[in-house]
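@channel sequence for tomorrow's demo:
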Amino acid sequence: MASTEVTTDDRLHYERARLPREVTTAIKSFMKQKKLERSDLADRLGVSRSRVTQILSHEENITLRTLAAVAAALNAHFEVRLVENEEASARENHHVLMGEGPRPSAKG
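structure tokens (generated this afternoon):
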């Protein structure tokens, strides 16, 4: 019987998808709240509007330097926390306690 535990590779795949999406969503939300357009951010960064679109696409492998530049251009800062995946651990523990065994990983 194959193991259904979530592996480090599974977590890595998930984080590589989640983190850029979360960061770009935060930037877009902040810009919307401040009524800023992509062209405003482009002007502040000294880059083209298409470059800002790339940065905000969440497909771009955004660097920490780029994030710092975006934050400075928006007169803002990022707050970063590294927290344990308690929700995932709680779900897994619940299924084990209920005699269901570990949940299969969602790959995709």
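heads up for whoever presents: Helices lie at 8-33, 38-45, 49-55, 64-73, 86-97.
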